[in-house]
Amino acid sequence: MIERRGISAGGIVGALVVDAVLVVGFAVVGRMSHAEGLTLAGVWGTAWPFLAGLAVGWAGARAWRHPLAVWPTGVVIWVATLVVGMLLRFAGGQGTAVAFIIVATLTLGLFLVGSRGLATLMRRQPTARR
């Protein structure tokens, strides 16, 4: 197994999958809060711009090097996910109201940066003795 600075290849893939699940979760919660359908097509239509932004963020941050780092990895991924997602939504004629941008900024920040902060805290906790 490939080991990179204490994180295995599986850990890197796991971090990417968690990020993607969080972005899709953001889309699902958003659709539910607006009483929109939770069809696969509907969730995909909401999530794909932010998933594209997530990919840009992972590449831009070279997140595979330090996938759980809050800074700069988590912050770069958060900002790229938000900005690219909003630009793609705007280009596609989807809503980019100020209230949505604020909610997306806060929610994606909590999810993408907060999850890394939580992971960092959990990794620093001493292992309980059995």
From TrEMBL:
Q: Which residues cross the membrane?
A: 7-29, 41-61, 68-91, 97-119
Coiled coil regions in record: none
Entry keyword annotation includes Transmembrane helix = yes
For whether the record's keyword set contains Repeat, the answer is: no
* Record key words, sorted: Membrane, Transmembrane, Transmembrane helix
> What protein am I looking at?
DUF3054 domain-containing protein
Question: InterPro entries this protein is in?
Answer: DUF3054
